[in-house]
Amino acid sequence: MNLARSVTSVLWIALSALAFSPLNAGAQSCQTSSDLDDATRTSITAPGQRYFGMATKGDVAAMRQNAIPSLASDFSGIEGTVKDHERDLAAAQATVKGVFLLDGTTPSPHAEFYCGVFGKSGQTANSAVFYLDNLPAGKYSVVLLDANSPQARTMFSLILQQEGTDWKIGGLYIKSAQVAGHDSDWFLARAREYKTKGQLHNAWFFFTQARLLISPLPFMGTLATDKIADEMQSSQPADLPVGKTVDLPAGAATYKLVSIFPQAVGNDLDLIVKYQSADISNTNLAYQGNVNVIKAVATKYPEVRDAFAAVVARAVDPQGRDYGTLLAMKDIK
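Above: the chain sequence. Below: its structure as tokens.
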């Protein structure tokens, strides 16, 4: 089965999520909602809620008209994101969860915005950190909305850039607050159960999912994400491709695993396995390689059979293109 890559987030610049690091002199300035006066806060939240309203109606044309030029010139990613979540957003009511004003007028290849009050141990309940690479000079705001409907709980996050007195759309992230009907707390509880059982691979995967679900943005750190990151470090198995490639023997071949992570596919939680491939143009060979990898993963990490509905292998060529194959757990022999 060939799987198209799911696009759930779009941003106009390259962003990377980094581990929490101590406050330093090179950090950029940031104000939280409580730091802002009413007029400034309203000037940010009002367009954020207006753009949310456009998304709920599927009015991507109006959103494009209100985007910064570099994003408006190629708006296909935003259109796809809104369309993918059309059903979840249709009857959703938005509640503003957070507002941040980021002063990026001083260019930095590795901008770090520390927002709120920090304690001796780092983050506090109301603080946040944004890690942004190659951020163009400008003034930005982040508007976090909880968008709940009878169908779903959704996190709707806008990155806005100031142009004159207007706040234009610079990026959009939409992600579910639940996977297969479960939230971050559920995955965190299961991770701890797996850790207690000694199933450290499943524990790592479920800690990873819990951390993803608790934060609306991949380049945002909070006290909650930092706590999960600290807790999951003791569960990290040495044989997983975390910051490195790992060899996976499969018959006469050896595959280099690039990453393994959980991902929602429909109502199921599947395990995604990415590995290096010299060429994916021959889909028959790519399919066979994927099947070999899936079977080898289920053999190497047998505990995953009890935690995931399926394994998806993705062969990734040197250009970053991939070819995916899904096998349900019951079909992996």
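The chain has three domains: 9-176, 184-233, 246-331.
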